[in-house]
Amino acid sequence: MRERVRRPSVDTMDRTLRDWYRTNKLAGDAVVAGCFFLAAAMLGYLSTPFGGGWSLGLSLLLSAPLVLRRSEPEVMFVATLVICLIQVAAGRPAMFADLAVLVVVHAVSAYSTPVWRYAALLTGIVGAGLGAVVWSGIRYDLEVTAVVFALGASAVAAAFLIGARQRDRVDREQEQSVSRAERERLLGIERDQRAEMAAATERARIARELHDIVAHSLSVIVVQADGGLAASRTKPEVAPQVLATIAETSRDALAEMRRMVAVLRAGGAPESDHPDYAPAPTVADLPDLVDQLRRAGLPVDLVIAGAERPVGAAVGLTLYRVVQESLTNVLKHAGPQAHAEVSVFYGPADVTITVLDDGRGAAATAPVEGTGNGLLGMRERVELLGGTVAAHPRPGGGYLVSASVPAAPAGPETGGRARPA
Asked: Closest by alpha carbon to 124, among 167, 95, 159?
């Protein structure tokens, strides 16, 4: 079957011609000048056959400046004025090519500066009066002269107004184009800023997760290793238990790191869809966390008060990380005889977590409040949910960390994350 050849539509051809005429000023205006000359010469020949070389020559002279209609409208205006004055001085009669004056007035009004615009308008009106006197045919009939002047002046004014309207439309289109370009530029800047903010937020989130996962496990390993080294000199039988705890904690930390890297490489796939990931830890997982610290050698008590209820995923994860970081600091800094207590209070509108110890307090806490990755990450997590956190030494010894977070409804949340299973 023979394929049908697709022909360009009329609209496509018209758009192509318009674009060519807009971008090729000299060539497009040369076509206009040529068409005007052919029309003026033909009409002049039809009205006065074999009218002589003067008519054809003046038609050519009046048409030639139109080539500069858009590129040099001032030069076109001056050239046309000189040719018209020569025509009047030579006593040549009016002809169809004199309509080029209207084209000149329109072009100057549309494409030149205000001084040239009004100069062209004034010159056109004066020329209409001069032509009415010279070419009316009845030099002493004032009524006919007035009518001819009125028609000529009206035509000049109409050409001027049409050119002014065209200029206003072009200016408005240029302003819209500039505004659109500026708006696109600002949108691009806004997109870049949002991308940078999102990247910074993601970096901070990853930093918090790495610190919470790795620092906790390494702290348990260090404490166990130090304790095992000291105990091995007097009680060698505890070494296998210490080494088993270190090995288990190391394997868990390594598995969590591998799974986190796998999710980061997944390229934005939802963590909940990852086969190696389970729901994020929450307040309900605190007993397991406390048991882990007890096995590491830190005596910890857990107290839950108030009407216990499920909380949102983001709230639960934040409170869990606060307790994890606080107990890790107790394990590292409070001393060998320290005792810790974790209390969870379910209030009407918020949940408050308090972790305190009776260890060495501020003297053993290396980072000052508000500094260090652990406390900084803790504060960022809580403040992102509209909560408050306080961390300071206790009078008489020990350290206290308290965080209060508004209790969001339980269920999936944008702030909730997944953790390695």
From this structure: 159
